[in-house]
């Protein structure tokens, strides 16, 4: 192999997986005509729009959906004020995505979804996303560039798959401490206020600031998940800490509430004006 410089990019990635989705297939011995599979048909149909079109993170990053899983990734370097703000929007949107999928799935009496958000790197070894055969007039392979050799995607998938034996249980979202480290280092690099960690009501609270000021408050369990006798997650070369996410309040929430309030005021004004006509 000739020596050359490979362009390795740092990226954020999330991976969300529907819980219990394989059970009907096992019960039916993988026969889709079996009655037991119908619940999965209904389940994935109901989530189709959430998986593909209407999720909060849509404008930023690249998404990948297949079977019962959903992934989204975004490059986070080179670090500039704009790229840092986009990474914050991506993170906020990824969390909103998780909550939307989880809520909708549980509302239909399904088990919900489990997810991981982590940091990693990627190397695109091809210059296109798919291959098309002109003779047969069909796509012969898919290989989206953003997910080629994407270690963040691989890590998120492996961590989620390790499941309850690794302390990753239930329909919960877990965030890698490496994401916190990235937010801190990126904020310092662009001269932005560094994220602040607080403790409140037995919760770990992360206050995140963007280039334009306060951006979001994220709340977690006070301690990382326990993996065996350790609070470090160690599995297949991954050594980190994972925190169970609980809830978020962001400036985006405030903007949405203000927009709803202003819309209500306009409707009220229109009704008042119509009363005088």
Descriptive notes:
This protein is α+β, with helices and mostly antiparallel strands and 277 residues long. It has 6 helices and 13 strands. It has helices at residues 23-27, 38-52, 81-107, 151-162, 177-190, 251-275; strands spanning 9-18, 62-66, 69-75, 113-122, 130-133, 138-142, 173-176, 196-200, 203-210, 213-220, 233-235, 238-240, 242-250. Strands 2-3-1-4-7-13-10-9-8 form a 9-stranded mixed sheet. A two-stranded antiparallel sheet has the order 5-6. The termini are far apart.
Short description:
This protein is an alpha+beta fold and 277 residues long. It is 35% helix and 29% strand. A nine-stranded mixed beta sheet has the order 2-3-1-4-7-13-10-9-8.
Ordered list of secondary-structure elements with their pairings:
Blueprint: E1 9-18, H1 23-27, H2 38-52, E2 62-66, E3 69-75, H3 81-107, E4 113-122, E5 130-133, E6 138-142, H4 151-162, E7 173-176, H5 177-190, E8 196-200, E9 203-210, E10 213-220, E11 233-235, E12 238-240, E13 242-250, H6 251-275
Parallel strand pairs: 4-7
Antiparallel strand pairs: 1-3, 1-4, 2-3, 5-6, 7-13, 8-9, 9-10, 10-13, 11-12
Helix pairs in contact: 2-3
